[in-house]
């Protein structure tokens, strides 16, 4: 038995459970209780400030990397989850799952997307808080797929499949533009970055620029709701804004499918 007692609660604590404090030794239970008692610090946009690594961004990168490895070793992994405008009408989960896939034969595809995600993700994760950040990312991914559906007739791409986190990443581009503007930052560099990447989609082949546009618009709109919400209404807006935007995306998608007679087939 340990004869060292916690200076806070007086209970004996074993060597593995001892934590050095400013005054004496504390047990792990008292350390956890003290941490919970600390006031929550928030960012300028109301996000809960977390010290340490950007957990959500690292998790998203990890999921994309794991999925990419599965694409290389599981024969039908890509075809099972990729986005195809017509197939997605019957399998709507593809609106999201395609964002965790990349072109198996083009390693630069996943490298560029993950570098871009790491470039802007941690800043937004810290500014918005983890919950709003992951919501924005996932909705931007869906918005990218919706963009592909809405522009499919105009671009004759109903039979074109697509993969990649680009729609979600462009959503983060749109969000960082809005957030930086809201906080009084210089957005010229961000505008140049968005302009160059959008232009590449029009001049290079095999790039789903429709998803880029859809993700950019979705991320920008949701970020605007988050960034410009009155402080007293931020929690409410954090719930209502994604629901409202999701409803708009759903209606727009259904109308696009109706225009090609999907419901009569």
From TrEMBL:
<feature type="transmembrane region" description="Helical">
    <location>
        <begin position="187"/>
        <end position="205"/>
    </location>
</feature>
<dbReference type="GO" id="GO:0016020">
    <property type="term" value="C:membrane"/>
</dbReference>
<keyword id="KW-0378">Hydrolase</keyword>
<keyword id="KW-0472">Membrane</keyword>
<dbReference type="InterPro" id="IPR022764">
    <property type="entry name" value="Peptidase_S54_rhomboid_dom"/>
</dbReference>
<dbReference type="InterPro" id="IPR035952">
    <property type="entry name" value="Rhomboid-like_sf"/>
</dbReference>
<protein>
    <recommendedName>
        <fullName>Peptidase S54 rhomboid domain-containing protein</fullName>
    </recommendedName>
</protein>
<feature type="domain" description="Peptidase S54 rhomboid">
    <location>
        <begin position="91"/>
        <end position="226"/>
    </location>
</feature>
<feature type="transmembrane region" description="Helical">
    <location>
        <begin position="94"/>
        <end position="121"/>
    </location>
</feature>
<dbReference type="InterPro" id="IPR050925">
    <property type="entry name" value="Rhomboid_protease_S54"/>
</dbReference>
<comment type="similarity">
    <text>Belongs to the peptidase S54 family.</text>
</comment>
<feature type="transmembrane region" description="Helical">
    <location>
        <begin position="55"/>
        <end position="74"/>
    </location>
</feature>
<keyword id="KW-1133">Transmembrane helix</keyword>
<feature type="transmembrane region" description="Helical">
    <location>
        <begin position="133"/>
        <end position="152"/>
    </location>
</feature>
<feature type="transmembrane region" description="Helical">
    <location>
        <begin position="236"/>
        <end position="260"/>
    </location>
</feature>
<dbReference type="Pfam" id="PF01694">
    <property type="entry name" value="Rhomboid"/>
</dbReference>
<feature type="transmembrane region" description="Helical">
    <location>
        <begin position="158"/>
        <end position="180"/>
    </location>
</feature>
<keyword id="KW-0812">Transmembrane</keyword>
<dbReference type="GO" id="GO:0004252">
    <property type="term" value="F:serine-type endopeptidase activity"/>
</dbReference>
<feature type="transmembrane region" description="Helical">
    <location>
        <begin position="211"/>
        <end position="229"/>
    </location>
</feature>
């Amino acid at each position: 038995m340990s004869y060292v007692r916690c200076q806070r609660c007086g209970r004996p604590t074993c060597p593995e459970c001892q934590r050095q404090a400013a005054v004496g030794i504390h047990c792990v239970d008292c350390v956890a209780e003290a941490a919970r008692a600390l006031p929550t610090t928030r960012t300028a946009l109301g996000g809960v400030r977390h010290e340490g690594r950007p957990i959500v961004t690292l998790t998203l990168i990890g999921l994309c990397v794991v999925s990419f490895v599965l694409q290389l070793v599981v024969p039908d992994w890509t075809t099972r989850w990729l986005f195809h405008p017509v197939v997605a009408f019957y399998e709507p989960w593809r609106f999201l799952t395609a964002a965790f896939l990349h072109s198996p034969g083009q390693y630069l595809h996943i490298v560029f997307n993950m570098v871009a995600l790491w470039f802007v993700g941690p800043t937004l994760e810290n500014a918005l808080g983890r919950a709003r950040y992951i919501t924005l990312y996932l909705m931007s991914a869906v918005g990218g797929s919706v963009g592909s559906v809405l522009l499919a007739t105009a671009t004759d791409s109903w039979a074109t499949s697509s993969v990649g986190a680009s729609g979600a990443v462009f959503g983060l581009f749109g969000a960082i533009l809005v957030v930086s503007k809201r906080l009084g930052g210089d957005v010229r560099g961000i505008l140049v970055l968005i302009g160059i990447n959008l232009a590449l989609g029009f001049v290079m082949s095999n790039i789903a620029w429709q998803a880029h546009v859809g993700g950019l618009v979705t991320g920008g709109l949701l970020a605007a709701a988050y960034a410009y919400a009155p402080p007293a209404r931020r929690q409410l807006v954090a719930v209502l804004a994604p629901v409202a935007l999701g409803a708009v995306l759903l209606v727009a998608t259904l109308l696009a499918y109706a225009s090609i007679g999907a419901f009569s087939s």
